[in-house]
Structure formats: structure tokens, C-alpha cells
Amino acid sequence: MKKRLKELADWVGGTVVGDEEVEITGVAAIEEAQTGEISFIANPRYLLKLNETQASAVIVSKEISQANRPLLCTANPYLAFAKILTLYSQQPYQPKGVDAQAWISPTSQLGKDLTIYPGVYVGDRCSIGDRVTLYPGVCVGEDSFIGDDSILHPNVAIYPKTTLGKRVILHAGVVVGSDGFGYAKEGRKNVKVPQVGRVEIEDDVEIGANTTIDRATLGKTIIQSGVKIDNLVQVAHNVVIGEDSIIVAQVGISGSTKIGSNVTIGGQVGLVGHIQVGDNTRIGAQSGVMNDLPPNQAYTGSPAMPHREFLRIMTIFQKLPEVKKTLSEIEKRLTKIEETIGSGRKEK
Length: 348
Description:
By secondary structure, the protein is of the alpha/beta class. It has four helices and 40 strands. The strands form six sheets. The protein has a twelve-stranded mixed sheet. A ten-stranded parallel sheet has the order 9-12-15-18-21-26-29-32-35-38, with no helix packed on it. A hairpin with a 2-residue loop joins β22 and β23.
């Protein structure tokens, strides 16, 4: 594919500094780009590479106005890069049909233009939308629904009565609808609480490899539209994750917790059950969330606290060895003073 730089600028809503007619045939990293390719700089620390790269053009922020090669200037270089990379990397969908070595229940309904690979299992009374791709090893349990243009990568397991919206992407090893972790104590014995609810995943959700989404005890576990979940995340029963939220790797969300919309949760964050996280909240990596968090704020630490408060505490924490040494010296001096005063009283 060839595109003039001016065409790419129009595509991402940017402007060109330099030759608008230069032809771009691909996208590459700033260190590896060659003639004909476009690269990007989103982090100021890489600005020194701007005049070193062999790229024919570079995507930069609007603050950069000159270089020794054409520039595509935009308010958000990383977003522009993502859109241009999508333009060059995505291939038109070409359905491959249903392989004879897939097992599809005769009671299931299949859409048009499907790609279903060998080793796929689709249970009774399922509905598979148009242009869906099911890779080898995918298992779709009974009474499940998969929306148009969804992609399930190898060895995805969809338990019965699960609903996936349109354009859902599930990466290898994702498990949706496994039993929630619910037990009641009878003395020392653990009595299983039946998990009879469902999972509902809305449109444009992407879930990373080996992430697990548990079915509800009663009702639904819900992942709302536009949510992006990284690899190795655990979402427990009856959790609700609001629209356009981002959940980074190794997060654990306990049962019945409600996550607002546009929330960002950093890696290895743990959230206890039955709490609420407000809209637009950001939670830093390795935080422990034990209480409700109000909206529109940033939190860090365990227990999670407002980020600025956490930074003040960390500043003090780093000085604790020095503070301890000072306190020990003060204690010794006070002891000597007390001993001197005590000696003076005895002499009288």
C-alpha cells in the first residue's frame, strides 16, 4: 500500500511540515525505519533520534516544527501512529468457511462468511454472528451468543449461556463463564455455592491471553462496551466493569465489585469484593483497594490512597533510616542529660 503523507495527515487530523507528496509504504520503529516508511515520536526522550532516523517522515507533536525530513504534526502522536499502523497492517477479511473437523451442533444458528478452524466445538442452541472467526481449540458452551466480527483465538473456553457482543476479541486461553469462587462454611467443611448466573460481554471488548471472567452467582457478570483487559487478569463473579475502562495485567477483582467507566487499573492491583470505583479513576500498579474510591482521582499504595498523599509518605519512608539514626542520637543525648541532672540532685 502507498499513501501520500498528506493523505495520512488528513486521515489522522494532523498537518504536514515539509513535503506533503512523499510516498509512505509502511510503518516502523524510529531506529529501524527505512526510506518509504513513517515512524513516530511520542516521548520527548527520543527527540534526539529525529534527525538520525532513515524514515521518510515522522509523526510528532504539534510543538515540533522543523527537522531534516517531513513531519506529520498532531496533538496526539501515539494515537496517530495507532491509526496509521492499523491502516497499513489490517488485511481485508476473507472467510475460510467451516472446517469439516469442527463440531457444530445442528441446533445452533450460524451467520454468514464464517471462519471456523479444525477442533472447534459449538454446543447446542448457540448463535454465531456474521464474519466470526473461531480458531482451533475454541469451545463454545450451550446457549451462548457470539456477535458479528468477533475473533476467538486458540483454546478460548466459553461456558454455557455466555453472551459476547460485536467485534469482541478474546486472545488465547481466555476462559469466560467459569464458576465464581463461592463457598459457605459448615464447621470446617467448605460447601460450594452453586454459580447459576451468566457473563455478558458487550461490543468492542478485547481480553488478553489467559484472563478469566467468572460467571455470576445469580444475575450477570458484565464487561461493558469498549473495555480493554490485559493478560492474566482475574474477574470474579458479579463484577461490573464500566465502559472504556482499561485493566492491566495480573489485576484481581473480587466478587460483586463495581468498576466505573473510563477507569484505569495498573498492573497487579488487587480489589476486595463489594466495593465501588468511581468513573475516570486511576489506580497505580500494585495498589491494594479495600474501600470505595470516589471518581476523577488517582490512587496508589496499599491500602490505596490519593496519589499525592502516597508520594509524600514515600518521601518520608525513604528517609526512615536517617530519621531512625537521628532519633537514636537524640535518645542517647537525653539519657546523658537525665543522668547528669540525676547526679546533680544526689550531690545536693
